[in-house]
Design brief:
Elements (H helix, E strand, L loop, with lengths): L13 H11 L3 E6 L6 H12 L3 H14 L1 E7 L1 H13 L3 E6 L2
Length: about 100
Amino acid sequence: MPGTIEITSPEIDVAKDKKSKEADTPGYLVVCWNDPVNLMPYVTHVFRTVFGWDRTRAERHMREVHEKGKSVLVREQFEKAEFYVHQLRKFALHATLETAE
């Protein structure tokens, strides 16, 4: 009979693994603010165009902008969030990029 085979498990650095997962977490919010210029159907149209949302989701965010003064539209990595802000501004919406807490 052959000898015993000893198998060792690899060491896992839990702190390092946790940090890499945190780095993958999107950390920027795209916020759209209410303004007195753009009509509600237009804002809904822009959300559908920029994000590819269905009418229900776009209208929900449009209502939040209208009733609460702002809506957090998405949480993304910096580059993608910045892209969305630029797209919304091209349609003359007041949008900002904020760090997520």
